[in-house]
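Title: Prediction job returns without error message
Component: structure pipeline
Severity: low
Priority: P3
Assignee: unassigned

Description:
Job completed but the reporter wants confirmation the result is attached to the right record. Sequence as submitted:
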Amino acid sequence: MRRVFVGAMMALLMLMVGAALAGGATAATRTNATYFNDASKAAADPYVLYDKSSGYYYAYSTEGANPGYYFAVYRSADLATWERAAPGALPVNDPKQWGNTWFWAPEVYHNPRTHLYYLFYAARSDANAQRWFGYANFEEPCKIGVAVSRSPAGPFHNIANHPIDYNPYDPSYHDVNLIMGPDQKKPPATEAQGQTAPLGTYIPAIDPDVYFAHDGRQYLYYSRNAYRNWVWDTDLGKYIEESNIYAVELTTQWWNDPRGGTMPTIAPAYRGANSATGGPSGPRRDGFVRILDYDHQKQAWENADVNDYATSGGDKKDRRWEEGSTTFERNGVYYLTYSANNWETPQYGVGYAVARSPLGPFRKYSGNPILTANPAVGMYSTGHGGLAFSPDGSQAYYVHHGRPTPTTDQRRLYTERMYFGAAGRDAFGYPILSMDQATSDRPIPSGVAPYSIRANHTRLRLGPGRGSAIAWRVTSANGAALALANPLNRVLANSANPRVATIVAGTDGGLIRAVRPGRTTITLTYQRELSHGGYRTVYNLTRRHVQRVSVTIRVVVSRSRR
């Protein structure tokens, strides 16, 4: 009967392999392993770096760091099961720290030539509000800092005791905050009143994202933080404070510095480009390129918070957000994903725009949002993520934050498969970007398998009553160790004859204890948790072979206690 069962299981697995390959999966997939979004890791504004030298993915997050650090650092061998890689990325007591709060949106880039890792982040510096923005009471004095490390796990240290020397300035903005009340929440009632305000304001910047173009150029994208950007909405007949996405070109000296001691600087054409008479006294007035805003391409889904002032009883402002952008190129088309609405709102979501140049003009996809609250799968406030690829480069993923319920306080880490063109082409002829938003089981990313499991002993000889510690590890095709402490993974340990020897197992090791003379085997089997409960044994698969990911330890218990 056992042979019949095993034979049926092997036949079923071989059918699964054939179906997977026929469905477009590559031979490199070679596994029945799955993953699901269990929303167990605290994360906000995550960015994922694939570190080719170690085979690990590293995820950096606004939230989740241990006390004494900014930005959580997680790592994963498979882009799905994560573990903490360090207490945090940036020490709070870094001697060159210029910010004092609002440490947001970390992104890390690796230079394989210099072996350096660069951390870009946003922070607020109240002590410098007057000097950098012209007003001591400037509420959101945010700029972009850069830190460096020789390890993707950090610790990172600030290159300088100041942010990037970039002072974006809007000379055409009527600074209505100067004619508003002290709470700075209720703008003028008419556009005509607003236009009586003085012209010019410095722009607070958050959510940095650097795009490295094929021609060697580098572009810094960022969000113009909503503060001091009141825009008259002709449809609503009132002012809305908006966050937009801008960009500036960088020079490359910082990237080419082998010691990592050079701060990024903006291209000369942008330095002082927005100088104008009037406005606040402050530093050089620099230029920018407008990438995305609401007024030039209105989409109704971005209006979730335009009535917050009334619904909150005056506690919140009427606002719109376009933030958390990521830019990448595919077949000559530039895609820019972005998030809209308040990050606290269940309707926080992700849209995208396309262009033929890194600086646009970008056109929003008419089917936005492509990722938003979905009660059917238990996912809310989805947004601010980044692009990652499977280890073999054949599949794209979007790693983002979200909440498992509308009222969950802490944001969590999610991974979604991303497709180009599966939903057809848009009105401009570009492949449509779409997401497989799910909390149910999905195939593990291509190229993670074949898995290997190894133990530090494969043969043991013990006396009765004696014990031996044993350790094991499961690795991906690239040699990175799976996060066995994450309950989505486990190693099942079984003794063929517990009357001869038993094993008490932990996450990555256990204790084998001899009972009485004889011979037996201990089998370690790699399994992955399923979304509906229970575990599935993992197999490496090819067209002809099915191989369980397991290892056998042979145990001989002698009659002598020595």
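Comment from assignee: result matches the submitted record. Residues 214 and 298 are 31 Å apart (CA to CA).
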